[in-house]
Design a protein that fits this description.
Number of strands: 12
Distance between the termini: 100 Å
Order of helices and strands: EEEEEEEEEEEE
Strand content: 35-45%
Helix content: under 10%
Strand order of the largest sheet: 1-5-4-2-3
Radius of gyration: 34 Å
Shape: rod-shaped
Number of helices: 0
Length: 186
């Protein structure tokens, strides 16, 4: 018999029992009683039963009850913000959530980016850990820190090009370098 954890006791029904039969149950302790043992938490349980019917030999049997972990309810984190140049670890997640993507990943380009988190419920004995939850993070550069380099030198016949790249977010901007002189004395 299978059930999913619900926080309440699960019961099983024996087939072929007559109204006048006396049924007794024994749980992990091996002591028989008139009530089924309380099977609440996730796990696999063995319950012994004894059926006494007038005019018949007592019948003993075993029922295995598996209570599986339930899927927890949670709200996907939203409104997450980060800064270029920092790591995912710098973004505080709500209680119960951890980065599935390595928290050492560096935030770079500005914009909305998707990463994965895992939800670890407080009661891991009765609830599943949920992986692969996609969250959106709004990344902003705290202030561009440009480094420049000449990507095309100026010549007498064409303008050159200087490229500026932000070391934090990777934003690129360019600037023309005017043509160099003709090289002939005036």
């Amino acid at each position: 018999t299978k059930a999913v954890y619900s926080g309440t006791a699960h019961r099983f029904i024996l087939k072929g029992i007559l109204p006048e039969d006396v049924v007794k149950y024994a749980g992990e302790d091996g002591v028989y009683g008139m009530e089924q043992p309380e099977l609440v938490n996730a796990g696999i349980y063995q319950v012994q039963y004894l059926v006494e019917r007038q005019g018949c030999q007592p019948f003993r049997g075993t029922v295995q009850m598996e209570i599986t972990k339930a899927v927890p309810l949670f709200t996907v984190p939203s409104g997450l913000k980060g800064e270029s140049g920092k790591t995912l670890a710098s973004i505080k997640l709500p209680e119960g959530f951890v980065w599935q993507t390595s928290s050492a990943v560096k935030l770079l380009a500005e914009g909305i980016h998707t990463w994965r988190v895992t939800y670890v419920p407080e009661d891991t004995g009765n609830y599943q850990t949920v992986q692969g939850i996609e969250v959106k993070v709004a990344v902003k550069c705290p202030g561009h820190q440009y480094q420049s380099r000449v990507t095309r030198p100026a010549t007498e016949t064409r303008n050159g090009l200087k490229t500026y790249t932000c070391s934090l977010c990777g934003t690129i901007r360019t600037e023309e370098i005017p043509k160099s002189g003709s090289g002939k004395p005036g």
